[in-house]
Structure formats: structure tokens, C-alpha cells
Design brief:
two-stranded antiparallel sheet; alpha/beta; 9 strands; single chain; 2 domains; Rossmann fold; 7-stranded mixed beta sheet
């Protein structure tokens, strides 16, 4: 619920998650405005609406991945005409020709296609703890330095807010205003404010993102059934990647995990375990 009762040292207090999110946005509004990371999903719709409610300046950016569902693109073009489409230097298919297929343990695609925007600015994202176990480690305020292994995480209290505000490290500062929202909070906010959202949610999709994303696990099977042309595009990229992979295996006396595009695609879709690394995953990218 967006309005909840929480127990504190002072007793039971009422927390309005919408007001808290607006406060987080208003606290650090930069003069040039926020860089608002917009993907077209339900969380992005919420943070964009909250930025309007907070009356903060922002410019919304969608990093074109070249593999998002067509329905998502149509939705953004119809209902979010102000969003800036930032196109990558290379498409997913061109990147696969060089890097091989991304996996859950080696998701180079996010760094190449999603995370480059907003450098040197204060960014707003729709990251939430409820999305995944990995995101439970994220904080309300974050600083990602130019060296990605060095990051600073700040909680939502007065002392750490000041540390975040005064941070002079070069990189990207991030505000996650709805980090503590549950899925039901997101939908309650959307319904109450009558926000439009992508129709794919009404067709059984829980989360939207790149078609074929390794984090989707077995849902990729359904995705490729719905979007067979994307499967064909992945396979064409694999056809171009495979000769180099086989050549590297031969030079190092490795036994290839795959010898044909079909074998590689089948391994990628059906053979990747959710919790453990499958033999051959890292060999694909070793130079």
C-alpha cells in the first residue's frame, strides 16, 4: 500500500510513499535538471509522473536497445512524445558478432546499450528492491564512479543525504525515488492517476525488456514464439560470430561447446541454468 503504518522509536507513524518519493526528487534537483532514465515500463511511467508532480526539471531519455518489443516502442511514441531516443553506436546484432551471446553471468549488453547515458549528471531511475534479489542491495541514493567497481551507496537519512549532495567524485549520481515500492504500489499509483501503460502487461507480461534477455530465463521461449523475427536476427548474428569462436577454440586446444548456430542457440535458450554457470559460458568471451 502507498500509505502504510511503520513502527519507529517514536511509535507508529504513517508513511506516504508518494510524498516520500516526491521529497527525494525535490531534495537534489540540479540546475540543469535531472537525467530521467525512461524505458517505457510501468516503473518508468511512475517516476516520470512523480517528477511532474514534484515540479522538478528533467529530460527523459530512452536508450534504444534495438531488441525491445515493438509494442513498447509504439507506446512510448504515442504517450511519451517528449522522451529523447538515444541510439547506440552499434546494434545488439553487431555487438553479438563481436562479443557472442549475452548470458545471465555475462550481461555485457546492459553496459553497452543501457547504462552509458547520464554520465556527469544526477539521474533518476525506477529501480526497486522488489524487482530482484540483486536489486535488494541497491540504495536510495548512489554514486557510480568512472571505475564501475567503485561505487558509493547512501541511505535515506539526513546525514547520508548530505554526503550524497556534497559528493564531488566524477561519475554518475543516481536517485531511486521508488526503491521501496512494491509491485502493488506501482499499479495502485498507475490506476489512481489513470496513467497509460504498455498493453503487454495486460497480455501476461510481468516485466518488459529486451526480447531474449538472459535474465528472463525460460520466458524467452514465449518471447521468441511471439517475435520469431527476433530469433532469426539473433541466429544471423551467431552465424557471423561462430567462426571466430571456433578458431579461438582450435588455437587453445579447447573442445568447442558448439559447432553450429543451432547448437549455440539451443544452449543459450534451453541450457542456461538460473543459479549455476553452465560449462562454456565464460569461454565464449575469452580472448
Amino acid at each position: 500500500m502507498l500509505i502504510e503504518q511503520i513502527i519507529t522509536e517514536k511509535g507508529i507513524e504513517t508513511k506516504d510513499k508518494v510524498k516520500v518519493a516526491i521529497d527525494r526528487l525535490q531534495a537534489f534537483e540540479p540546475g540543469e535538471g535531472y537525467y530521467l532514465a525512461f524505458s517505457g515500463g510501468k516503473d518508468s511511467c511512475c517516476i516520470k509522473a512523480l517528477a511532474e508532480m514534484a515540479k522538478v526539471k528533467y529530460d527523459a531519455h530512452y536508450n534504444v536497445t534495438t531488441v525491445d518489443p515493438p509494442e513498447l516502442i509504439y507506446f512510448m511514441r504515442e504517450f511519451h512524445k517528449d522522451v529523447i531516443f538515444d541510439r547506440p553506436e552499434k546494434t545488439m546484432w553487431q555487438l553479438i558478432e563481436k562479443n557472442g551471446l549475452p548470458t545471465r553471468l555475462h550481461r555485457w549488453c546492459c553496459a553497452e546499450l543501457k547504462e552509458k547515458g547520464g554520465e556527469g549528471r544526477i539521474c533518476v531511475t525506477g529501480v526497486r528492491w522488489a524487482e530482484s534479489n540483486q536489486r535488494r542491495n541497491r540504495k536510495t541514493f548512489e554514486v557510480f564512479t568512472l571505475q564501475k567497481e567503485n561505487k558509493m551507496l547512501f541511505n535515506d537519512n539526513e546525514e547520508e543525504r548530505k554526503m550524497f549532495e556534497n559528493c564531488t567524485v566524477k561519475g554518475k549520481r543516481i536517485v531511486n525515488p521508488i526503491i521501496d515500492w512494491l509491485d502493488e504500489d506501482v499499479w495502485e499509483f498507475i490506476e489512481f492517476n489513470k496513467l497509460p501503460y504498455c498493453k503487454l502487461y495486460d497480455e501476461g507480461f510481468k516485466r518488459l525488456g529486451c526480447i531474449g534477455c538472459p535474465s528472463a530465463n525460460k520466458q524467452r521461449i514465449k518471447q521468441f514464439e511471439l517475435y520469431p523475427k527476433y530469433y532469426d536476427a539473433y541466429k544471423r548474428a551467431v552465424v557471423k560470430y561462430l567462426p571466430g569462436y571456433l578458431e579461438r577454440c582450435s588455437k587453445r586446444n579447447y573442445k568447442p561447446k558448439f559447432n553450429t548456430p543451432e547448437e549455440m542457440m539451443n544452449w543459450w535458450i534451453y541450457g542456461t541454468d538460473e543459479e549455476q554457470e553452465i560449462e562454456g559460458q565464460r569461454d565464449m568471451w575469452e580472448e
